[in-house]
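Q: Is it fine to ask for two folds in a single conversation?
A: Yes, each is treated on its own. Send the first.
Q: Here.
A: Result:
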Amino acid sequence: MIFAKRAVLIGCIIFAGCLFGMLLQRLLPMQHLADAKTAITTIQSLMTLLLALVLGLLIGTSYGVYSQQQSEAQTLGSQILQLDLTLEHYGPDADRGRELLKQELIATRERFWGGDGEAPARLSYGDSRAELRDFYAFFAKLKPATDEQRRLLDAARQLSASIVQTHYLMSTQLRNPFPKTLLISVVCWATLLFTCVGATSTINALSIIYEALGAASVASAIYLILEFSQPYLGLYRIPSDSVDQVIATL
């Protein structure tokens, strides 16, 4: 909902630029507009090209963030499954490790999906270090009696480190994927473009309707950028069903 409100506000700002251009067309003498038509057309073409390139790039980048988070969430589930089975095969002495694994997964669930309309909580270096330390302390207490248990213990160490590493990467990759100043610049470019459109277009109901639709289109592109850059919020959020099922199983 918060992204939709921002998109609506952006659309209003861009359309206001169009209305400002129409106001200039009414206030300034026709000769001034005729003399400046070449400059206005040039700026309009430049802004159109610039917006097309930047919006396309930002949408592609934001979708890349979404796809990467989805892939890493699936990888995390696979790693947890492997570690759970490894500890189960080790024997009853590894039950404490399965409990630590469940706690780690619950913490992951709360960090990424627990907030009600809030951005995921950041996982700090200290948090990751504490999680690894808990696993290492548990593994240090295990006393493997057979070669098979030693092999399973080595595999469990590697998998636990991979799980914490994946969790840490998922958190750090979400930190400010797009600077606010970049999006502000895009909105300013779009507003300037629509100011040029309003200054040169014929003022009638049909032109105003299509200019409003154009402003809404640019706002919808920015909405997609915001949505995909925060894959655990909004309309296109990554579902938590798979994580919830693993927690229930553990």
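Q: Second one now.
A: Result:
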Amino acid sequence: MTHDDRGLKGLNNPDYPIPEELQSTIAVTSLDRIYNWTRAKSMWPLLFGLACCAIEMIATAASRYDLSRFGMEVMRASPRQADLLIVSGTVTKKMIVPIVRIYNQMPEPKYVLAMGACASGGGPFKEGYNVVSGIDTFIPVDVYVPGCPPTPQALMHGFLTLQKKIESQSLRTVPWYRSGESEAIPVPILGPDIIDPRQADLIRRHAEQAAASRDTTTPAPTEA
């Protein structure tokens, strides 16, 4: 078989022809493999250090661990130039507002890595009055790296896990390759507490039910 025959024509044996409905699948699968390989080996992480996990993230980016082996050497400080958001540290309710804004500013395809126990689920401050118990309640997370804080080896394992996820994706199913614009995540509203606009209807119904229950349990005033 010559080099020019190594396409669908070369794979389509006349004795065992490839059905027409599968020929497009083979073409897309080959395209997926090339496209995903280039994306997985050229990730541009966005630094978003918040607490002690950021120190371990900075150490991972130093020369000792050599992230360039995995194609992640370039760290960016602008969401417009990054496709991997690394949230490392404790996320307060004030901080989740700019995190959602930064996530919306990142171009597709984009991924999120929650580094450490605080970013993954709240950590030792879980259910605190000013702490978000996991950033996955507001933005989608692709990889969780446990630890308090995780070691550089654990963070590199998270990078490799994300690369495997990227290499297994297909252009047929990923949402960012479909026609139309992807919807931005509503920015949380910071008031007496953090409010997710996506739950506004649920909060309104609960408020109405609470008001109705108070009206039925409050006794009517008696006349003097």
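Q: Anything structural to flag on that second result?
A: Two points. The chain has two domains: 40-177, 186-217. Residues 20-40 form the longest helix (21 residues).
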